[in-house]
Each structure stands twice: as C-alpha cells, then as structure tokens.
Amino acid sequence: MISRYAKRLYLAFIYLFFYLPLLVVFIYSFNMNKYTANWTGFSFRWYEVLLNNTALLDAALNSLLVAVCAATAATILGTITALCVKRYRFPGRKALYGSVLLLTVSPDIVMGISLLLMFLLIKMELGFVTLLIAHTTLCAPFVTVTVLSRLAEFDEYLIEAARDLGASEAAAFRHVLLPMTAPAIAAGWLLSFTLSLDDILISTFTTGPHFEVLPVKIYSMVKLGVKPDVNALSTVMFVLTLVFVLLAQLIYQFRRK
C-alpha cells in the first residue's frame, strides 16, 4: 500500500517538475498587468499585442520555415547514412559511424563556432542558407542514431526473401525496408524539428542580421525582463505542439485498428 502511494507521489512530482513552469507561463499570458509577477486580472490583451507584433511573428515564421526544411533534409541524410552503415561494408564505415556519434555529443557552441568559421572562410553571407546548413548538420546525426536503433531489430532475411520472390532492390526497399523503418524515420523528423526550433547557440553564430529566428529574438527580449506577449507566444506554440502530438496519436491508433 505504501509503495503504491509512494509511486503515485513520485509520478506527481515528475509531472509537476516538467509541467508546472509551462502552467505558470500559460496562466500569466492572460494577466492584465504588464509586469508578469503581479496578477491584476484576466485579459486577452497580450494576445492582441502579439498579433500586432510583426517582428515577433516574422521570427516565429522564420523558425518554423528553418525547422521544417532542416528536419526534412536531416531526415533524408540521416536515413541514408543509417542504411549505408547498417547494410553495406565499405572503407571508412567505422569512421563514419564514429563521427556520427561524436556529433551527437559535441557541444553546440563548438559546432556553432566551427560552422561560423567555415562560412567566413568560404565567404558565404550569413542568413537562411547558412542557418539551414547548420541546423541540418545538428539534426542529421540524431536521425541516423534513431534509424539505426530500428534497423538493429530488422531481419535481413526479409530482403533476401523479397529478392528471391522477384523484387528488385528498389522494390524491396520500398515495400519491405521502408515500412519497417517508417516509425523511426518519423520519430527522427520530429526530433529534428524540435531541435531546430528551440536551438539558440548555433543559431546565434550562423544567422545573419536580416534573418532572425524566434529563440534568438526571445533571448534578446528577455534580457530586459519577460514580456507578457512572449508568454502569449509560448502558450500558442505549446498548444499547437500539443495538438500535433494528439493528431499523431490519433492517426497511429487509427492505423493500428
């Protein structure tokens, strides 16, 4: 009995630890007062301010654009790398796998400085393209590791059976290998999207003055204090994320049925 209550108490503590800060942001986004610490009444004032804050909305759209493009590019590169490492033998295979693992634990600030130096060396103007390359470099190794974990459970004899039944290499990949790895590929894309959307260190070094993304914009704003319209934007993004997660879960349950 005591053990059951202890488990419930521990679970409640974990939920509070993760979600209490989000709840505070959600509540204070409806605060009428300009200063976050003092509650003076319920109001949608800061959501109206957010809709009129074109600079903040442009930064949010830029972040979404970079996140979608970087996640897609990283998923393609990471999946191809995972397939090559798992299914083929070639010189430098172990070095490639080791470099992928090294990038997953490499500090963001080191990656940001090194990419900045590379862009300056080749005289590439900082902006959308450099930020996209940087975020793709950041996310691709995580996709590779995610897909490799799925391929570790894959039975290679299924490919051989498909080839014995007359399927070409492309057909075996499309009808056997790709459906088996699809959950890992989708998970890699979502992970890449999240990493790109909230990255600030690499973005600070690799973006230009004419292309501002949301994390860098918010960081520059909160130096002088957290404004209520930032709380409103955080609430909107959290709700949208929650909606996407619920839709993905519903689609998954529908496909299982």
Protein architecture, described:
With 257 residues, the protein is mostly helical. The chain is built from 11 helices and no strands. The radius of gyration is 22 Å and the shape is globular. Helices cover 78% and strands 0% of the residues.
Features:
257 residues, 11 helices, mainly alpha
TL;DR?
With 257 residues, this protein is mainly α. It is built from eleven helices and no strands. The longest helix has 34 residues, at 54-87.
What is the terminal separation in angstroms? Answer: 37 Å
- Class based on secondary structure composition and strand pairing: mainly alpha
Question: Oligomeric form of this entry?
Answer: single chain
DSSP E strands, number: 0
The secondary-structure element order is: HHHHHHHHHHH
Sheet with most strands: none
Reconstruct the topology from this structure.
Elements: H1 2-28, H2 45-52, H3 54-87, H4 93-105, H5 108-121, H6 128-151, H7 157-164, H8 169-197, H9 201-206, H10 214-222, H11 228-256
Helix pairs in contact: 1-11, 2-11, 3-6, 3-8, 3-10, 4-6, 6-8, 7-8
